[in-house]
């Protein structure tokens, strides 16, 4: 299966940073490291596997992305995942903010 830079819509910048990943709807929380960041997505390394199609909210703490404001929180979907030794490399495509979170209604009810 093709993944990574073969399918990217924009350039990615290698950066070093931390990420907190909330996997919805169950709100499992994973900690990870940022591998790269771009306008349309982010590459992460995490210890626990995610699955393609998982919806996630990500809190990032990174510096040094040229000509781009890096917000603290993003939402997206897992596009691909590969095991690399004892960790998992994960590609996440950001969702359009206008699209909203598919789980927002359940948060409002609780």
Blueprint of the fold:
Layout: E1 12-24, E2 28-38, E3 41-46, E4 55-62, E5 73-84, E6 87-94, H1 104-109
Antiparallel strand pairs: 1-2, 1-4, 2-3, 3-6, 4-5, 5-6
Pick out its properties.
single chain, 110 residues, mainly beta, Thrombin, subunit H, six-stranded antiparallel β-barrel, 1 helix, 6 strands, 5% helix, disordered C terminus
What does this 3D model show about the protein?
This protein is mostly beta strands and 110 residues long. Helices cover 5% and strands 53% of the residues. The protein contains 1 helix and 6 strands. It has one helix at 104-109; strands at 12-24, 28-38, 41-46, 55-62, 73-84, 87-94. The longest helix has 6 residues, at 104-109. It is globular, with a radius of gyration of 13 Å. The N and C termini lie far apart (39 Å).
Instruction: Indicate the proportion of strand residues.
Output: over 45%
Structural class: mainly beta
Q: What would you call the shape?
A: globular
Task: Detail the poorly predicted runs.
Answer: 104-110
Helicity range of the residues?
A: under 10%
Number of domains: 1
Short description:
This protein is mostly beta strands and 110 residues long. The chain contains 1 helix and 6 strands, in the order E-E-E-E-E-E-H. Strands 1-2-3-6-5-4 form a 6-stranded antiparallel barrel.
């Amino acid at each position: 299966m093709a993944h990574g830079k073969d399918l990217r819509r924009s350039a990615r910048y290698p950066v070093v940073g931390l990420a907190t990943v909330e996997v919805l709807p169950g709100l499992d929380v994973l900690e990870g490291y940022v591998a790269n960041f771009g306008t349309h997505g982010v590459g992460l390394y995490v210890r626990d596997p995610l699955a393609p199609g998982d919806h996630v909210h990500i809190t990032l703490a990174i510096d040094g992305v040229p000509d781009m404001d890096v917000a603290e929180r993003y939402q997206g979907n897992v596009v691909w995942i590969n095991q690399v030794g004892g960790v998992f490399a994960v590609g996440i495509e950001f969702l359009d903010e206008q699209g909203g979170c598919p789980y927002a209604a359940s948060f409002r009810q609780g």
